[in-house]
Amino acid sequence: MRHFLTLKDFTKEEILEIIEVGLEIKKNLKSKIYKKELENQTLGMIFEKSSTRTRVSFETGMFQLGGHALFLSNRDIHLGRGEPIKDTARVISSMCDMVMIRTFEHSMIEEFASYSKVPVINGLTDSYHPVQLLADYMTLVEHSASKNIICAYIGDGNNMTHSWMMLAAKLGFELRIATPKGYEVDEEILKESLLLAKESGAVIKTMNDPNEAAKGATVITTDTWTSMGQEDEKEERIKIFKGFMVDENMMQLGAKDAKFLHCLPAYRGLEVSESVFEKHSEIIFDEAENRLHAQKGLMVWLDKHR
């Protein structure tokens, strides 16, 4: 049985296989090929952090594969009222066929998975957001931009940055990360990704100059400067991140026809300009839709690898 907690636990071949399954399901969306793939199976969805895309994509995806999804917030289960994580894991995994968790501490999902009898999927933690990266890379494949990637990540050294590091380290492409001083990536995760990069041939660079990172990049991506739980830092972050907005000038530093990705929600005038967002809106909303298809591929893959 396999869990999907972070991309570092998967080989390059396995990551590409999951994405290929997702693309195949998307291609056959109107046929009956996959409509009973997870028939009579149940996905328990634990949300300690709310979300638009994560809930809609997993719930819809499970329905389209013939299964059923249960939404479980802190208000709905005893986990939010003091029950030990290991007890909740034992109970839910005895009744559900798969569990998706969107939470804060990564250690919480690790503990849950260690006691779970069924596959556990990381829907987001403060450390990683791997399901988003499946959708991002699937989108690059569809837009013929997955070869010879030079990716520039501009912004906060957060869970999205860490997941890009793991994807680059596994697939072997170049990633340049530009963050303001004091907002760099986690040192331990950086060490892990650099170690993995030695095996794949990936190049991972960290810096504080966004323009330097963007030079010649084939893909430029960013995320909100203020993540959930950091609302009290918003005004301070806006001042510190000045100069890190992805605008037309920064995009022009990239390669010809460079792609722009954003995991959403997007705050125009902060991490991305209105003009850049709208110019690249087609690929951004393909990326959002691909959360559905990539996660369907993931759930089918995990089911076959029990």
What does this structure look like?
Helix content is 45%, strand content 15%. The chain has 306 residues and is an alpha/beta fold. The termini are close together.
- Shape estimate: globular
Strand order in the largest sheet:
7-6-5-8-9
What is the CA-CA span between the terminal residues?
Answer: 4 Å
Model regions low in confidence, pLDDT < 50 over at least 5 residues: none
Q: Give helix % range.
A: 40-55%
- Quaternary form: single chain
The topology string of helices and strands comes to HEHEHEHEHEHEHEHEHHEHH
- Sheet bearing the most strands, described? 5 strands, parallel
Mean pLDDT level: 96
| Gyration radius, rounded | 19 Å
List keywords for this structure.
about 300 residues, alpha/beta, 5-stranded parallel sheet, 4-stranded parallel sheet, 9 strands, globular
List the helices and strands and how they pair.
Blueprint: H1 12-27, E1 42-47, H2 53-64, E2 68-73, H3 85-95, E3 98-102, H4 106-115, E4 120-124, H5 130-142, E5 150-154, H6 159-171, E6 174-178, H7 187-200, E7 203-207, H8 210-214, E8 219-222, H9 234-240, H10 248-253, E9 259-262, H11 274-279, H12 281-304
Parallel strand pairs: 1-2, 1-3, 3-4, 5-6, 5-8, 6-7, 8-9
Helix pairs in contact: 1-5, 1-12, 2-12, 3-4, 5-12, 6-7
Brief rundown of the structure:
This protein has 306 residues and is α/β, with parallel strands linked by helices. Helix content is 45%, strand content 15%. It has twelve helices and nine strands.
